[in-house]
Amino acid sequence: MGFGEVPNNIIVGNLRSAAYLDVMVDRLVEIMSHSRHCAILTGAGMSAESGVPTFRGADGLWQKFKAEELANMDAFMANPKLVWEWYNWRRDLMSKVEPNPGHLALAEMENLFERFTLITQNIDGLHHEAGSREILELHGNIHRNKCSKCNRILSGDIEIDPDRIPACETCGGRIRPDVVWFGEMLDNDILSGAFRASEEADIFFSIGTSAVVHPAASLPMMAKQSGATLVEINPDRTPLTDLADFYFEARSGEFLPELISAYKERLESREA
Predict the structure, then answer these.
(1) Residues near 189 by beta carbon (within 8 Å), at least 6 away in sequence
(2) Exactly one of 34, 37, 103, 139 is catalytic; which is it?
(3) Domain span at residue 208?
(4) 34 counts as catalytic
(5) What are the C-alpha distances in Å from 1 to residues 15, 94, 246, 259?
(6) How many domains does the chain have?
(7) Is there a cis peptide before residue 80, judged by omega within 30 degrees of 0?
(8) Residues 6+ apart with CB under 8 A from 231
(9) What is the pLDDT of residues 21-41, one digit of tens each?
(10) Which stretches of the chain drop beneath a pLDDT of 70?
(11) Using CA atoms, how far apart are residues 40 and 159, in angstroms rounded to an integer?
(12) What is the pTM of this model?
């Protein structure tokens, strides 16, 4: 699908016009070509396009639990076996999904800028699988493990037996998933890196995020207030929409590959 063949669900500036979309994309590509540092924030919308399931299944054991009842330290200390059974179930579900064209486009986009920072609220690891390198995972990664006491990250993907949860070799604490639980603070180094990247970006993309969960929701406006061009890509309008310099009402897996293609065409025309 080219930008001249726009389905009705892709709207730019509330105008269902392929010609207007072409103009806006051309303007965005021009800005991208003069930008040195690009920062990206991705949210649950990108994962949903890959079919990443929600916390709870439609039936079975886990339907009777709320996420906040299991994803917290108190629950882990009280019943670590139950928490690990839930996380192993979630890991199994996520192992069946793959990066979508939007993930792959962002991995390719990383090579278009002198500096590139991908900030994600998602824990599924799909950006890693797609080939992205400079990733800040605000909420952790469900495929990683760490010590519940000293926070030491365990190398490699280690399968955990809920009946025999291993202890940390350093301090003896129980091993838990490396995700941010309810009531926990985000990793300070990762959050600081996200703030710094947002403040220093020339162009900032907010993709598939509701723009309501803080502190991530503050990053796009931090970038804009620091002088960055703010771009939102989302099939649904958010509190950020009216503040963005560009708003493309689209699924990332449909729009991003076309944006990269348009960018490459501009480069090729300049070199010709």
Answers:
(1) none
(2) 139
(3) 11-52+99-139+185-271
(4) no
(5) 19, 29, 21, 11
(6) 2
(7) no
(8) 28, 203, 204, 205, 206, 244, 245, 246, 247, 248
(9) 788 889 999 999 999 999 999
(10) 1-19, 54-63, 157, 270-272
(11) 31
(12) 0.89
